[in-house]
Design brief:
The complex is a heterodimer of chains A (298) and B (343). Chain A is mostly helical. Helix content of chain A is 74%, strand content 0%. Chain B is mainly alpha-helical and 343 residues long. Chain B has one domain: MetI-like (MetI-like fold, Orthogonal Bundle). Chain B has a two-stranded antiparallel sheet with strand order 1-2. In chain B, helix 5 packs across helix 6, helix 6 crosses helix 12 and helix 11 crosses helix 12. Chain B starts with 17 loop residues before the first helix and ends with a helix. Classes of the chains: A mainly alpha (298), B mainly alpha (343).
Chain lengths: 298, 343
């Protein structure tokens, strides 16, 4: 047996010194720990929502309206039927307003405006809208539709506030997807003699549809969770109504008014409503992800 | 040549009749009008808000409104300084706590974690953005605040020699809890933008660092972080904009007491919270003062978001020449911001 040859000096230099290795471990450990810390709140929130929320769920919870008798410690406080229906109605109307408007603006940006100065200005203002705190949309609708008309709160006013909130999300996500539609597809259609509007409705929009649905669902999910724009536009009420011209209850507003209650059973209703709301929003998010997975673009 | 004489060069055959061109025209001008409507809407909003805030400014003066430490609606005093300070302090806390964690999560998912963990981790962090503000408030007030009261009091007692920290009694809704919950709320957006920017770091720069013998951390420090600085700053600023404008969670958690922040664990107020809390009963000058608070909030978020966009777009430009076709002027990062905004 011969002794192994001495290691070349170069390899000696290539090995990392203990202090550098230690620092590397430490830094990587810190980064991993930071990631773990980022996930702790999620786990805690989900755990607490399930623990507290499931306890207050029952058939009555979903089929009765809040009674307003918040000082009784019994089940006479009622459930969240009006809140669920109100949220669904108002978000549906908000979607009906903001989706066509938003996609229209996105189509204009991609097909007509492109990089003109006016289009850049529109993009800038859409970005501005994204950053506007949601309560300010509530104030805006209050100024225009409550002070402006000399009337009071109504469900449709809440919907308009929510639609303003959804608009920038719909526009930006639709714009990005529309940009992904290959120019060749458009040009082929134009070369075959199709007018521009046909190209848009028959070629561009169908190609972009699955991707746009993702953005739309995310916007809907955002609107469903918003409290602030509804406080001074749709107000809150206890009774179920399908009349968008009347005061309307919603899940976030119901939770908000229940949080401040000193009565434990009312706070429990808030947990149950919160679990319902988060479940609804997660469902929308899940749908959005499934749809985007099926999209051929992006 | 022969081909030149073939009939059909007649352009008149190709031109559509005016009637056939009508839908095209209508669509073009209709959509342009729609886009102009967005612009008009924001300008109109701003003008109306200023109009509604006018009586309050006339009552207290613009300077008096912004810098007087006296918010007492029942006595007709509208000095919004405590609200502005409360907003800024809780938002600053959110940044101090949230940004390092968000950047760490972004670094871990882009550079360190096994590739099969990447998508699940990203989705989990982004799920935080799906939780509504009011649920954060509910969770913060009934779970986080009571659980952290002991540790907070301990810190307040031990660090009482540092001016801002100590001495006082920890109240159940307080500034620190507000900042902490805000930090959780801005985490997804800061993390998403950082991740987006980190993914634009050219692989050859990272490989060059590793090839020269750098450890993974050294590679991150010399190749990844300097390249992403601008994008991370932009992401943090967008997070700041969110934190400043956050309403319901703050209203539930901050304690709604209109006095200057005395210590970290005491109560305060914020611009958004004052609107949510007092607008329902406000009339006359009080209501106008709340519109003025909204105006200050609007201007503040505009400034912060403007600076943020500047940084994010600059980060996109830095990556621009190399990958112009994929990341035109920070589009990727801004898309990330808007997607998370929607999530």
């Amino acid at each position: 047996m011969s002794t192994p040859p001495p290691r070349p000096a170069l390899l000696e230099r290539l090995t990392v010194s203990p202090s550098r290795r230690r620092r590397d471990r430490l830094a990587r450990g810190t980064i991993a720990a930071g990631t773990a810390i980022a996930l702790i709140p999620l786990v805690l929130i989900v755990y607490y929502l399930l623990k507290k929320g499931l306890g207050s769920w029952s058939t009555d919870f979903f089929t009765t309206d809040p009674t307003g008798n918040t000082f009784f410690k019994t089940s006479s406080i009622g459930g969240i039927k009006s809140a669920i229906l109100g949220t669904i109605e108002m978000v549906a109307l908000a979607s009906a307003i903001s989706i066509p408007l938003g996609i229209g603006v996105a189509v204009w940006l991609v097909e007509y405006g492109r990089t003109t100065r006016f289009a850049q200005a529109v993009r800038f203002f859409v970005d501005v809208l994204t950053g506007v705190p949601s309560i300010l949309f509530g104030l805006f609708v209050f100024i225009v539709l409550v002070i402006g008309t000399g009337s009071t709160y109504a469900g449709y006013k809440g919907s308009i506030a929510l639609s303003l909130l959804m608009l920038p999300v719909v526009i930006r996500s639709a714009e990005v997807i529309l940009l992904l539609v290959p120019a060749g597809v458009r040009e082929s259609a134009l070369a075959l003699g199709a007018p521009r509007w046909r190209v848009i409705f028959r070629i561009v929009l169908p190609t972009a549809l699955p991707g746009m649905i993702t953005g739309v669902l995310l916007a809907v999910a955002r609107a469903a969770g918003e409290t602030a724009p509804l406080l001074f536009t749709a107000a809150s009420t206890h009774k179920t109504t399908t009349d968008l011209g009347a005061f309307m209850n919603s899940l976030p507003v119901q939770i908000y008014s229940d949080v401040t209650s000193p009565t434990a059973s009312v706070v429990n209703r808030a947990w149950g409503a919160a679990l319902t709301l988060v479940g609804l929003i997660l469902l929308l998010n899940l749908l959005a992800r499934l749809v985007s997975r099926r999209s051929r673009l992006a | 040549m022969e081909a030149a004489s073939v009939p059909g060069g007649d352009r008149a055959l190709l031109v559509r009749s005016p009637l056939a061109r009508l839908p095209d025209r209508a669509l073009k001008y209709g959509l342009t009008g729609l886009a102009a409507l967005i612009l008009a809407l924001i300008v109109y909003f701003f003008v109306r808000l200023v109009g509604q805030a006018q009586p309050a400014f006339a009552h207290s003066g613009v300077i008096g409104f912004a810098f007087d430490n006296n918010w007492n609606p029942s006595a007709g005093r509208f000095g919004a300084l405590p609200l502005i300070v409360g907003t800024l302090i809780t938002s600053a806390l959110a940044l101090i706590i949230g940004v390092p964690v968000a950047v760490a999560a972004a670094l871990y998912t882009t550079e360190l974690c096994p590739s099969r963990l990447r998508t699940p981790l990203t989705v989990l962090v982004e799920l935080l953005a799906a939780v509504p503000s009011v649920v954060y408030g509910l969770w913060g007030i009934f779970f986080l605040a009571p659980k952290l009261r002991g540790p907070e009091q301990w810190v307040a007692d031990r660090l009482s020699f540092i001016p801002f920290f100590g001495g006082g009694i920890v109240t159940i809704p307080n500034c620190f809890i507000t900042g902490l919950v805000l930090a959780i709320m801005i985490l997804p957006i800061v993390s998403a933008i950082s991740r987006e920017v980190m993914s634009t770091v050219p692989a050859d720069q990272k490989e060059a660092a590793l090839g020269l013998g750098a450890t993974r951390w050294e590679m991150i420090r010399i190749a990844v972080l300097p390249y992403c600085r601008s994008g991370i700053v932009g992401g943090a600023m967008l997070g700041l904009g969110r934190a400043i404008g956050e309403t319901i969670a703050v209203t539930i958690l901050i304690g709604n007491s209109p006095k200057l922040v005395e210590h970290l664990f005491g109560q305060s107020y914020s611009l958004a919270a004052v609107i949510a809390n007092e607008f329902g009963e406000a009339t006359g000058t009080h209501r106008s003062a709340l519109f003025a608070a909204g105006l200050v909030l609007f201007v503040l978020t505009l400034l912060v978001n403007g600076v943020a966009r500047f940084f994010v777009i600059r980060a996109g430009r830095a990556a621009g020449p190399r990958r112009a076709e994929e990341h035109s002027s920070g589009g990727g990062a801004i898309l990330a911001a808007d997607t998370v905004a929607g999530a």
